[in-house]
Amino acid sequence: MPRLNKSELEQFLSRDALILKLGTITGEGYPCVNPLWYSYEKGAFFVAGRGKARWVAHIRANNKVSACIDTPDSPYTRVIIEADAEIIDDEWTGDWEHWAHRYMGSDLGHQYYEDTKHMPRVLIKLNPRSVSNWAGPGWHPRYQE
After folding, report:
1. Residue 1 pLDDT more than 70?
2. What pTM, to 2 d.p., does this model score?
């Protein structure tokens, strides 16, 4: 499985409606994974959630997170992220219409945005500490004897 080069990685993270699976840590120390819409901008990942979402509370208590963005079909591509989460805005009503279009299509996305844009979300920036990736079929070289 070869790694994506920088240009390929940027393209992969910005295309299609891939879901970011965000791993947070519960108060009891268990991992908790949530599928989320995301935006990738200038080397950082942005996610938004409702203020009462459990995963948002987990980040408030422990900002160390991990995430996976991958393709569901072969040839598989995976990006694994370790990051420090930073709450940017607790009452965000910014412009996220491009997210709705990306994940729901133009018509449905526009309607969803118009119907819910007034509802505040918590905007969170994931500042990557490490990013690794694999693409295509076969074994990663480190697993070959």
Report:
1. no
2. 0.92
SS3 of residue 66 by DSSP: strand
pLDDT at 82 > cutoff 90? yes
Q: Which residue do the tokens 């970011």 mark? A: 20
Residue 144: is its pLDDT beyond 80? no
Picking from 22, 81, 71, the residue whose alpha carbon sits closest to that of residue 48 is 22
Which domains are assigned to the chain?
Answer: 6-143 (2.30.110.10)
In eight-state DSSP terms, residue 31 is: E
Please state, in angstroms and rounded to a whole number, the distance separating the CA atoms of residues 128 and 115: 32
On whether the CB atoms of residues 86 and 63 are closer than 8 A, the answer is yes
Is the sign of the CA dihedral 36, 39, 44, 49 positive or negative?
Answer: negative
Is the Cβ–Cβ distance between 80 and 126 less than 8 Å?
no
CB burial of 64-97 (b: ≥16 within 10 Å; e: otherwise) equals ebbbebbeeeeeebebebebebeeeeeebeeebe
DSSP state string for 75-142? SPEEEEEEEEEEEEEEEE----HHHHHHHH-HHHHHHHHHHHTTS-EEEEEEEEEEEEEEESSS--GG
